């Protein structure tokens, strides 16, 4: 049964079953791309890091393993990449064939204990992170393996096919597909053209009906391994060629973000868009559940909210704070708040000049007046108290933190900072 249509029908009839939130696809971009790099190879730190350091709008995912010893040898390099905003995911301790392992304690060690080991190794090297994404070695997966993955991750990447995910089709969160790069398997032009398809650039009308139909922007997941000029390494890509892809993705105005970041936005949308409203005295509330405790600590969502039933200038609130209405009528809400409230405005109250809520970096503060309040958070979202600017006091351990700056009348600015 299509509950959405049912809910809409009932909503029109005046019952409290409407689904008033509609997430704007791909964070307001035409599409998205996540570049992932497997196997913790030393040449990723040596050859890819300098490329990434030049491109502040590009953030990628590394799926780490102890296989080959690159992670241990380059732990400080991966920690530096983590502190620069790149995601560190789990690719198992020894990169074995998970579906051949019948001993569950072995799966526990390969999957869950290794996630903790990644966190500890990076913390020892100055990067405080939380592992939330997984990628199966050899893309070998079954229900038992997925059960272990789900105990410490909210999403898993497998391989294969065109690697595109459509906005309105819910995938298997424990088996996302990815387009695989090998020198013998794909040309650089083919990869660039995949980035066009994800951005819905081109004429797709002539496609055969048995082809995969392209109807709009999508999320492309790319699987890479090494980064080197060594043409003998079939799995590796030249540094210049991956840079070309990053730049093309930006030109195409794609959202270029880590696998776990785009995945969380994508997964959250299926939940809030299906969440039903409950009538209150002066409006309605909408509540939803978080599907995994391993979602990121903050998942800002750009949404449209049908506030018609409440009337003009309805106020949207989360956690007791009013969310500013953007100039296009949308709102940036925080998924991890698990609810929002829409109510009639009080006299003089205006949704366009409200301050915003924690977690939503909508419009940066134009300047920082002396009454700006700075709050320090760890990456799990724990409030560590107030600080004096975008500086983490020396008493805190080395690592990555979030500082939220708030001043009256302006949306807060959220910054990732490192100590
Ligand atoms: Zn691998």
Descriptive overview:
Residues 6-16 and 356-366 have low confidence and may be disordered. The strands form 5 sheets. Strands 2, 3, 4, 7, 8, 9 and 10 form a 7-stranded mixed β-sheet that branches. A 5-stranded antiparallel β-sheet has the order 11-12-17-14-15, with no helix packed on it. Strands 19-18-20-21 form a 4-stranded antiparallel β-sheet, with no helix packed on it. The protein folds into 3 domains: 1-19 and 280-362, no CATH class; 29-266, Glycoside hydrolase/deacetylase (TIM Barrel, Alpha-Beta Barrel), CATH 3.20.20.370; 364-419, no CATH class. Helices cover 25% and strands 22% of the residues. With 419 residues, the protein is of the alpha/beta class. Zinc ion binds next to loops.
The Cα radius of gyration reads 22 Å
CATH topology of the largest domain: TIM Barrel
Largest sheet: 7 strands, mixed
Gross geometry: globular
Percent helix, as a range, is: 10-25%
Strand content: 15-25%
Tell me the domain tally. Answer: 3
| Distance, first to last CA | 51 Å
Q: For the residues shown, what is the average pLDDT?
A: 89
- Class per helix and strand makeup: alpha/beta
Treating each run of at least 4 consecutive H or I residues as one helix, how many helices?
9
Tell me which CATH architecture of the largest domain applies here: Alpha-Beta Barrel
The low-confidence parts are 6-16, 356-366
Q: What's the CATH first level of the largest domain? A: Alpha Beta
Ligands bound to this protein structure: zinc ion
Short description:
This protein is an alpha/beta fold. It has 9 helices and 21 strands.
